[in-house]
Structure formats: C-alpha cells, structure tokens
Amino acid sequence: MSSDTLILILAQDRGLGLDALTRQRTKAAVPFGGKYRIIDFTLANCLHSGLRQVLVLTQYKSHSLQKHLRDGWSIFNPELGEFITPVPPQMREGQDWYSGPFDAIRQNRYLIERNRASQVLILQGEAIYRMDYAELARAHRETGAAITVAVRTVSAPGTGRQARVVLDADERIRELHASGSGGDGAETAEGEHQETMGVYLFDKSVLLDALAGYERGVSPDADLALDVIAPRLAAHPVRAYRFGQTRGRVTPDRYWCDLASVDAYYQANMALLRAEPPLDLYQPDWIIHTHQGQYPPARTVPGPRTGNEGVFVNSMLAAGTVISGGGVNHSILFPQVRVEDGAIVEASILFQGVSVGAGAHLHNCIVEKDVRIAPGDQIGFDARRDRERFEVSPNGIVVVTGENGSSMGLASR
Questions:
Q1: What stretch of H or E contains 102?
Q2: 165 partner at 20 to 30 Å CA-CA among 81, 280, 302, 338?
Q3: Cα(173)–Cα(50) distance, rounded to whole angstroms?
C-alpha cells in the first residue's frame, strides 16, 4: 500500500483569512492546539495510514514550515523508500512561481512520472481532521474508480469554500458545483448536502493526462474539483468516499475544519477545551506527531511580589510554561509562555515564548510568538482602543502581533 501511493500535500497557500497569523509563515505552519502546527494533522494521517512517500509543495514564507518538517518529521527511512520532502518551485515548467494548487502539481509532473506508485493522493496541508487514507484507497480499488473524492455531509449553505457534490445511487459523482450555486439533487430532504474536503485520489495515468491537457489560460486559483475533476466526470468513473465511515482504524469523530478565518481558528482551538471536544487529541491509537523542544515541565509558582500561587482552570499548558502568581482560565498556552504576578489570561491563545507582564489582563486574545505584554496592560476590554492598536476579528477576537512596539522574534516563526 505504502509504495503504491505517492502523496502530494499542498502547503503553498498564504491563508488570506488568517492574514494576521500568516505574515511570517505559511498557513500550514500556523500553530494549533497548544503544541502542533496545522500540517501535523495531515502528516499524522499519512503516518497512521502507512503512507510514507510524501512531497510537500511549499512556496509562501516556507522557512518555518520547512524547519518544522526537518525538526519534527525526519522520521522516515530513505533507504526503505520513505520520505517527507518539501518541494518549493523548481522552475522546470518556465520561470513562474506556483500560480495555484493545480499549477503546483503541474510544475512537479516529473516527480510524479518518475515515481513507481500507480496512484497519487492529493491533500490540503491546511485543514484539521483525522482520516484513514488506507481505507479510502481500499474503496478506490474495490469500486474501480479512476478518481475518488472524499466528501463530508454538511448543512446548507456549508463552508462556502468547498465544491458541492451531487451523487447517484451508486455513490458515483454526477455533478460538481461551486458552493452556493445550484445543482438539482444536491440537497437531501433534511437540507444537508455533500461537499469536497480537499482529499483526492487519482490513478496516476488519469492525473498525468490532466496535467498534459493543462492550458496556461487556466485561472491561477483553479480548483481541483471544479476545473480538473468536473470536466472528466463523463469520461472516467469518479466515486465519492464518505468521510467518517466506521471502517478503518480511526475513530469516526467526523471533525473537519479548514480554519478559513481568525474566528474559525479561534473557535476550533477553544473547542478543544470542552469536556467532550469534537476532536480528541488524546486518542491513544492515533497520536498527532509533532516537533517538541526539550523544555522543562509546565508549572505554577508563587508570585514574587504577592506570594499568590499561580493557578490555571480548564486550560492547556505546554512544556516550559510558568505561571508565576498569575491566573489562566479557559486558555491555550504554547511552550515557554510566562504569566507574571497578578496577570490574568482568559479565553485566549498564547503562542510560544509569550510573556504576560505583572498585573496585565488579556481576554479573547490571540498573541503571536515572543510578544511581550507590558505590565498592567488591558487587552480585550475596550473595543475602540483595541482596534486602534491591534487587528480585531468580526467576532471581537484581538490578534496581538507585536507590531505596535512589543518585542517579538521573527527568525523561526
């Protein structure tokens, strides 16, 4: 199975909806869940599915991503034909950068041709979900499909970013439509419909045929579902694979999120703090692998000024974090965060190396890596003042990037 499937992970997207968090890194490298990067979830799916030939197509501000792949994912054995390899634009098809997802694949046609695999699995590296790709490949073989598209059931109108799918009684894809457009039979009586989720398994010959027919006039943001697969529905058997099926090794939690905005990113992180989160990071048979620095354990200590014990309630604290007389409630703290005496952090996400000065108070904030919050500062309480200093999402989440005088490191975002 592993040697017969080549993986292409699309990780070149800037992530415009997350602009405040992607100014120094590509979307796939954005931190998530207290210790991970977004791409870790796709890579963990590959690892657990027995797929170990992985090309990661990178472009936009990729240093942080490539460093993470080196430090956290150098776990495969090249002598056994296993690899996770970042592939920036090679200029083999002219002198252009990747102009879109399909163009990124087109420019690396030679890597597909020279690989012995008979099928190619194309994945987004910018979504959070857990999936057994081996089970998808089994269905692909058993149904005799030339292309298999993973789909998930959503309530109308859906995400607005993924293509809508119309199926026949045999689960063959009959139509693909842009989200929000028409399409007879796209919805069920309950108002639900099927959407793509950025997981496409091609017979290699079919994908190479599509690449050979690529024209320069195709839009830079050409969609794999609408612009590549849809025109081939009549000529090839294109099947749907329903996400969250009970077969396979992964628990069918049916959770999928593409983190299309700051608010979606914030809500996805906060959902991990529920008593029964929609995505269980603690599932022992599907561990999410990542890079972890050699930091000491997180701890609380009395504050040097007040003597008050540091406390935290319903929060995630990564290694190296110290709460020194401060309080943390319903928040996610990445490694090496420090909360000083009398400081309060509520409903917030603090990236690695953040320091919250004594007496400061944060509420509904996302704080970038290495930012220092000044002692006594109040963020998240005065909307007008917050908008003058920081970026604020439509739902009122304050993104503190350190671009207003706070110290922050940029070398290894």
A1: helix 101-106
A2: 280
A3: 27
Structure tokens given for 143 = 């149904």
Q: What is the DSSP letter of 107?
A: T
**Whole-number Å distance between alpha carbons of 344 and 93:** 54
Provide the residue type at 141 as one letter. R
Q: Which residues contact 180 (CB under 8 A, 6 or more apart)?
A: 157, 160
Helix 63-72 vs helix 39-48: crossing angle, to nearest 10: 30
CA distance 342 to 347: 17
Asked if residues 315 and 273 have their Cβ atoms less than 8 Å apart, the reply is: yes
For the record, the structure tokens of 145 come out as 């499909």
Nearest partner of 354 among 365, 81, 162, 54, judged by Cα: 365
**Contact present, 355 and 340 (Cβ < 8 Å):** yes
How would residue 412 be classed by pLDDT, with cut points 50, 70 and 90? Answer: very low
- 365-367 vs 361-363, strand pairing mode: unpaired
Which segments within 12-146 are labelled E, that is strand?
31-32, 36-37, 53-58, 83-87, 119-124, 128-129
Model pTM greater than 0.85?
yes
The token duo for 364 is: 């509904």
**Per-residue pLDDT tens over the stretch 165-221:** 998 888 889 988 887 655 554 555 456 788 999 999 999 999 998 888 765 555 656
Q: What is the DSSP letter of 242?
A: E
In this predicted model, what pLDDT tens digit does every residue of 213-272 receive, in sequence order?
765 555 656 788 888 888 888 889 999 999 987 666 677 678 999 899 999 999 999 999
